[in-house]
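Students often ask why we bother encoding 3D structure as a string. The short answer is that it lets us treat folding as translation between two languages. Here is a chain of 215 residues written in the first language.
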Amino acid sequence: MWVSTILLKMRGIVDLDDFLGLHFWQGSDFHIYQFFTYMFMHDSSGFSTGITHIFFNMFSLWMFGMLLERVMGAKRYIFFYISCGLGAALVQELVWQFSIGDLSGYTGVNTGSEVISVDQFYNLLITVGASGAVFGILLAFGMLFPNMPLYIMFIPIPVKAKWAVLGYGLIELFFGVTGSMDHVAHFAHLGGMLFAFIIIMYWKKKGVFDHYHEI
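And here it is in the second language, the structure alphabet:
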């Protein structure tokens, strides 16, 4: 999907992000199916800038998801992954709603370079990527394998999974609250982690993981 989006955009055929990326719910470009399709898209602004991001997303999905799938089973695992992606999308929509406020009384929005209609402004709000679902995978890994040592880049000693995941969550919260790296949907990442926490806690209560003694 990522390569197709880049090639189709370069040739001027179609921008798949406009159709499959998640738009703000009040914009005319929003469609309900985007809650699902956005998580299979990726930043298509350029190959060189996107390759690192998509590599680490897919590497994390493989490295951590592989163990989770063995514990959960294939059907429960895919349900979990999609649910985290949907949760991330829902949180991102709520963040947009509360951060923008009510623009119903405005005829236009000044972007700094031009004045555009409210609907045009709404349609500029779009997010794509698997990161929300992947952060849900990371949270689940930290909950189910809390003491597994992880070797993190630039840290010379192994870090237990539970502390690594907690660190990632706090970093995302800091970036989201301060507005740092504002081109990244930090609250969507946190949304994926939140829904992962709820699902894992519910499954633990139901005894889904009782057969697995390493937890």
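Translate back mentally: Residues 2-205 form a domain with the Rhomboid-like fold fold (CATH 1.20.1540). Keep this in mind for the problem set.
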